[in-house]
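Consider the following assembly input.
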Amino acid sequence: MIEIGRICIKTAGRDAGREAVIVDILNDKYVLIDGNVRRRKCNILHLEPTGKKIEIKKGASHEEVKNQFKKLNLPVWETKPKQKTERPRKRKKKRETKTTSKESKKKEKEKEKEDKKEDKKERKKEKQTNQEKDNKPQKATKETQETKDNQP
Amino acid sequence: MPEPRLRSRSLRRVYVKTPGGRTAVHYKHRKPRVARCGKCGAKLKGVPRERPYKMRNMPKTKKRPERPYGGVLCSKCMRELFVSKARLIS
């Protein structure tokens, strides 16, 4: 029963209960299988042969097996290539970023202090200018008042 | 004497040797029963025997063997089932 092209059902492991076809016979214990299972070496004891048989060459490729399986309306196992996912950053890098963030925070604080100092200086200047402005018109008014008082 | 609620045997007792040389009694919850095969009743391998709070935090792949009927049937019963199915078809 174990021959190239024989359709079997796998009875052990992750692919148990799925259809497979014998593609190659490796030795008296092991065969190469393909089909609705992952293409792999398999122990004969883990296969249950069925009455069906398909015509394929020894060591047939996955696409040949796929075409034959489509004729029998059997599903085929497709291995998807692994998509590269972004790994989470290492902790060391995070620490570096943290230290940089601390430094940046320090710098920000210093900047804020400087800004505050500058603001204070500006305010003082403004105050002084305002006072001068206030003083001048006051004097002027006083003078005018005096003039006004004197006039009559 | 321990507290009245600890005098029943619903909690299991674990004897712990402290660093000071004294043996202290710790009270811990009992573990659930072993998972068994649904067909033959054999003990299932690869299914951990833990309290629900530990099972909840465990990944699915660590809680049962990764094959059809994993964690429900033992490997022998699963194989018998698939062999019989294959023979019925052929």
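The helical segments of chain A are 62-71, 91-150. Ask yourself how this observation constrains the way the partners meet.
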